[in-house]
Structure formats: structure tokens, C-alpha cells
Design a protein that fits this description.
The chain is an alpha/beta fold and 612 residues long. Among the domains are: 189 residues, Rossmann fold (3-Layer(aba) Sandwich), CATH 3.40.50; 94 residues, Roll (Luciferase, domain 3); 131 residues, GMP Synthetase, Chain A, domain 3. The protein has 18 helices and 29 strands. The strands form 6 sheets. Strands 2-1-11-10-12-13-14-15 form an 8-stranded mixed sheet. A 7-stranded mixed sheet has the order 7-6-5-3-4-8-9, with helices on both faces. Strands 16, 19, 20, 21 and 22 form a 5-stranded antiparallel sheet that branches. Strand 14 and strand 15 form a beta hairpin. Helix 2 packs antiparallel against helix 9, helix 3 packs antiparallel against helix 4 and helix 3 crosses helix 5. The chain is globular and about 70 Å long.
Length: 612
């Protein structure tokens, strides 16, 4: 991938910025060095696990708040004892190290207790996305056969819709009440009642869990498309996150509270932010789902000093009318990903945020970048071995030199980000060996070398810092979620009025990521196409973020020699009616049908009239 490097000179890190920020870390240097050494010894010493950290925190900070939420507050002592009761109960039910438990709950303290209890046993938590329905949900629940299914009342209907296909045997279903609107479903055990009389002491199994053991499966479509894959999250990864993000990056203290309104089936909440409150006597504050109208009142109510964000949420807050008290809150530091350069500085200034620790990583990645120096508009640096190589966007593949090797890009250039795979920097990958192998590129610089393909284009902006550019392949990001185009195309193919379809992402004005667009070849006359039926079909089968916002009616779709649909031109033309040669339609916010995308409607979208 080649670019005009002068175009991005303003994004490069300058010597003054870099060394000025480096000097600001001097006072914390002893702590950073000690913590870094400890992190390096975790795998070597084969010690420390999620349950061990929890027990350590409960012993050191028993009376400190551990969890804050409208569903209940817990001290570290009470939280640990609750996890212990769950652990003892599931041990009594025969669960053991190496088993899998499917956890299907919204953000609430019970989810954190069940997760930690399984961690103490050595059971792997399959963290099921609560937005999934039907085929995708069925797939995630059967990908890694579970010995136990923990289902919340809030998602019971969705689970019951696929229950018959799961091969569940007696005694494997556990129900957690929520608002009490549903009675106790048949075939389930009332989990809250079952654990009530169990011992509160730490289980002996904790000592047998090691850093390399799997703690969670997080489901991701990655960059290769298709159904979600189960990325493996190990105990060691989260222990390192607790030390690195908690002590070095965020510098969390006993009085700090980290606000997390993001779902715990994603790594931002599960692996990035929550571990940071361990070991420091800090607290995590939960909200079921992000609410822009309640955000600042939550921050004040929980006295939140830190927040885990995705870029779209920052834009939501910026879109609210300015208020005189915009800076009157306890929030001083935030960690997350996707804060776009166009609002970065304005966001910090308006809300008085002193420190932005932007990160780059993925559930399955063996790389982790963090903006430790608190520079503007960068995903930061990475201490692990990586390379950025030239990429041909048209061919959708890395550039190979005549000798077969790849070429590293220069400062200011963008390319494909790769993470070196070695004994010191392994790639845990997915629960599927085939899916894991699909993410590995070999013979990059020397014969026999192996690299993790992030599927992301980034720019080298100097001093080891990178800036995210775009995603490659069939997956795009919208509303902070990865959308698999092949999965959306599969749903489109289930609509009887469609003969062929192509799904891709298109840039939206004033939005983070790309909105979904589907080009379809109708089955039958175009004038008979059911625009409302297709919209309803998508909304019933897909999470809201995956529903295509734009529709293009084509007479045909161009194919490659290997019969793959060519999407490059479709992406370039986007949803501009003055450019596209086919009829365009849009699913406007609040509508249940695709309607014609006229020049006037296009202008209104560009002007920001509609909030997609």
C-alpha cells in the first residue's frame, strides 16, 4: 500500500513531543521497572491466575469497593466470597479444569461472580454476545461444547429459541433471575438459591490453575469473515493486563473507580479494563448498556476517575449540547480504542480529560499497543515484535517482492500490521486449528518465519507509534463492532427475493467506522422487490449494528476469475446517487423499510440530519 507521505506529515510524532512525554514518566520509573520485571516472570515462574489475583485483592483490600452497579455493590471480600460459593457449587456438580461453561448474561455482578468462579476451577468461560440470535447464537453455543449453560432472565427467550439444538442434558441449565418478570423456566436450576448455602472459603482448585490455561472464549468474526470464531483468552494474558494496565498505564489507586458501560463479552471490558482494578484495591462500575443521557450522572454517582471507551461513545458525548458543567466531574483518565483524530483534542479540551490511553489490540492478537505517553492521535507503541508491510488494497493482499519476501513501509506510510510469532510471543489463536492457521502468514522476511495477520492497515508515525487507517478483507467496523460481510450476505441469501448479494462498509459523515451497504441482484422484476420485507428480515436475523443501512439494486455483480464478487468499485461509489449507476435506497433511523435515496436525502445524510 503506497501513499503520499507528505499528506500525513502533521500526524508524525516529533522529537519534542516524544522526549517531553518520556521525561514526564521519570517519577514513576521505579514502579514501572518493578512491574515490568514482574510481568516478565509470570510465565517463567508458571504462577498467578485470575482466581489467585482475586483472592489476593480480597485479602489486601477486604473493605474496599470492588463492584458498583444499580444491581448491587460488593466489597472485595464479599465479591470473592460470592465467587467462592459459585465455585464450590459448580465443583459439586462435577465441573473441572478444562471444561467449558457458556455464560449468557448482561452486565451485572452475577456475571462477574460466575466468570471468576469458573476461573478458580479452571473452567473456560464462553462469553456469549447477548445481541446474537438464531443461527449466530446457535453457532457460538455449540462451537465449544459446554458442560454448563448459565442463562440470565433478560436473554432467556433468545436462548430458548435455540435450546433444542444444543444437545443439553439434565442438570446443565442454570437460571439467574433478573427483574422477576419471568417465572422459573422448566429444566433449569435456580443458581442464586443453589449457591446460597455453599462454603465461602477459597477453593483448593485455584492453586492448580496456571497462566497458560484458558479463562475465556471471546467470539470474534476477525478479518476472514464467516461465523464468529472463539478467540482464546488465557489467565496469563489477564494477569499481565492487571499489572500493565492497572499499575503502569492507568496507575490505579485504592480510591479509583473504572466505569465500564461496555459489554463483558468483548475484550475492552473483559481483558482491557476490568483487570486494571485488581491488585490495587480499585473498583469497577457497571452499566448494562451505554447511555449517553446517563453517562455523566453515572460518573458522578460512582465517583468514576477512569473510563473504558470506544470511539463511537466519545462522539455520542461530543454530539450533546455543550453545558456549563461539562468539566465538573471526577473523570481524569480514559482507556480504549477508536477515538478519531478529528475529535481527539476537542474531546479532551471540552471535558477536561487529562489522559487518553488509546490502545490497539484484538481478542486473538499477539500484539498490544498502548499510548502510554499520552500523546495525541496515536494508538501508541508495542514492546512485542511487529512489522508494517506494504499492502495492495486493490488485490487485497500484501505485496511480495521478486524474491518472495515482503517490504517494510517507511515512516509516514501505511501498510498491513503483522505480529511475529515465536516461543516468546506465541499466538494463542482460536479454539479451531483451521481458523488459527488462516491468520498466519509465513515466509515474510525469511523462509520459515511466521507472523500473525492482524488484518488492519496502520500508519507508522515515528518513534514506534502507529495510527490506525482501515481494516482489510471482508470485515468492517461499525458502532464499535466487527461486522462480517459473509455472515450478512448469508442472511441476505435467505430472503427469497434476492438472487445474489454483496455486503461492504461505506464511510459515513460524522461517524466512527463504516456503515453496512448491500448490493443485491433481485430475483424477478426490480419493481416487485419487497423493500420492507428485506428490512424486517435483516432486523429479525441480525444485531442492529450489522443491519445494512444502504441498499443498491444491481442487474448483475462483477466476478473475479475465481468467482469472487468484486467489491472495490462498489466501495468507491458508496451511497452517492450522483456516482452510483444503480438505484439506491436507505434504511433511515426509526424506519422499517428501505426508501429511495434521492439527491436531497443524500445531502441531508451528509449534513448530519440523521443519526445512524
Amino acid at each position: 500500500m503506497t501513499e503520499d507521505t507528505n499528506k500525513h506529515q502533521q500526524d508524525l510524532v516529533t522529537p519534542l513531543q516524544y522526549w517531553g512525554k518520556r521525561l514526564s514518566l521519570l517519577r514513576r520509573l521505579p514502579t514501572i521497572i518493578r512491574t515490568a520485571r514482574h510481568i516478565g516472570s509470570i510465565a517463567v515462574d508458571n504462577r498467578e491466575s485470575w482466581g489467585g489475583m482475586l483472592e489476593q485483592s480480597a485479602a489486601r483490600f477486604p473493605g474496599n469497593a470492588a463492584i458498583k452497579s444499580t444491581d448491587g455493590h460488593y466489597t472485595w471480600k464479599a465479591f470473592n466470597e460470592g465467587a467462592n460459593r459459585h465455585a464450590h457449587y459448580f465443583i459439586s456438580r462435577g465441573l473441572k479444569k478444562g471444561d467449558t461453561a457458556a455464560v449468557f448474561l448482561e452486565n451485572r455482578p452475577e456475571l462477574l461472580m460466575v466468570y471468576s468462579a469458573m476461573g478458580k476451577i479452571g473452567v473456560c468461560n464462553a462469553m456469549i454476545n447477548t445481541n446474537l440470535r438464531l443461527d449466530a447464537l446457535r453457532h457460538c453455543l455449540t462451537l465449544n461444547p459446554a458442560m454448563a449453560f448459565i442463562v440470565g432472565e433478560e436473554v432467556l427467550d433468545a436462548f430458548e429459541a435455540v435450546r433444542a439444538d444444543l444437545g443439553v442434558t439434565e442438570g446443565q441449565l442454570y437460571f439467574l433471575r433478573d427483574k422477576g418478570k419471568k417465572g422459573m423456566p422448566a429444566g433449569y436450576t435456580d443458581l442464586a438459591g443453589a449457591v446460597e448455602e455453599m462454603p465461602a472459603v477459597n477453593p483448593e482448585t485455584t492453586a492448580g490453575v496456571k497462566p497458560a490455561d484458558a479463562l475465556a472464549y471471546v467470539f470474534t468474526s476477525g478479518t476472514t469473515g464467516g461465523m464468529p470464531k472463539a478467540a482464546v483468552i488465557t489467565h496469563g494474558r489477564l494477569v499481565r493486563s492487571a499489572y500493565y494496565n492497572g499499575k503502569i498505564v492507568l496507575d490505579m489507586r485504592p480510591g479509583d473507580t473504572l466505569y465500564v458501560p461496555l459489554p463483558f463479552f468483548h475484550t475492552n471490558a473483559l481483558a482491557l479494563s476490568w483487570p486494571a482494578v485488581f491488585l490495587n484495591g480499585s473498583a469497577v462500575a457497571l452499566r448494562r448498556k451505554f447511555s449517553v443521557s446517563n453517562f455523566w450522572s453515572d460518573v458522578d454517582a460512582y465517583n468514576a476517575t477512569a473510563w473504558c471507551y470506544i470511539g463511537e461513545l466519545c462522539r455520542y458525548l461530543m454530539n450533546q449540547p455543550p453545558r456549563a458543567d461539562d468539566r465538573d466531574h471526577p473523570l481524569t483518565k480514559i482507556i480504549g480504542n477508536g477515538l478519531r483524530p478529528d475529535i481527539w483534542k476537542a474531546f479532551k479540551t471540552r471535558f477536561g480529560i487529562k489522559k487518553v490511553f488509546e490502545i490497539y489490540g484484538a481478542a486473538e492478537s499477539n500484539l498490544y499497543f498502548v499510548n502510554l505517553l499520552n500523546l495525541d492521535c496515536t494508538q501508541g507503541t508495542c514492546s512485542l515484535p511487529y512489522s508494517i508491510v506494504a499492502y495492495d488494497v486493490e488485490a487485497d493482499e500484501p505485496v511480495r517482492e521478486p524474491d518472495g519476501t515482503m517490504r517494510k513501509v517507511g515512516t509516514g506510510e501505511a501498510g498491513l500490521l503483522l505480529g511475529e510469532i515465536s516461543a516468546d510471543n506465541p499466538f494463542a489463536g482460536y479454539s479451531s486449528k483451521q481458523a488459527t492457521e488462516s491468520k498466519i502468514i509465513r515466509d515474510v522476511f525469511t523462509r520459515g518465519d511466521a507472523w500473525f495477520n492482524t488484518g488492519d492497515l496502520v500508519r507508522d508515525i515515528g518513534y514506534g507509534h502507529i495510527q490506525f487507517v482501515d481494516r482489510t478483507g471482508d470485515t468492517f467496523r461499525w458502532k464499535g463492532e466487527n461486522v462480517s460481510t459473509t455472515e450478512v450476505e448469508k442472511v441476505a441469501g435467505g430472503f427469497d427475493r434476492i438472487a445474489l448479494s454483496a455486503v461492504y462498509g461505506v464511510a459515513m459523515p460524522g461517524g466512527d467506522g463504516k456503515a453496512g451497504m448491500v448490493a443485491v441482484v433481485p430475483e424477478g422484476p426490480a419493481e416487485d422487490f419487497d423493500f420492507k420485507g428485506l428490512a424486517v428480515h435483516f432486523m429479525q436475523a441480525l444485531p442492529s449494528y450489522a443491519v445494512p443501512k444502504f441498499l443498491r439494486l444491481n442487474t448483475g455483480l462483477a466476478l473475479t476469475p475465481t468467482h469472487k464478487i468484486k467489491k472495490v468499485d462498489l466501495k468507491k461509489e458508496g451511497f452517492d446517487p450522483s456516482v452510483a449507476t444503480d438505484p439506491l435506497f436507505v434504511l433511515l433511523p426509526g424506519s422499517d423499510a428501505y426508501t429511495p435515496l434521492t439527491a436531497d436525502v443524500f445531502k441531508e445524510i451528509k449534513d448530519g440530519k440523521y443519526k445512524f
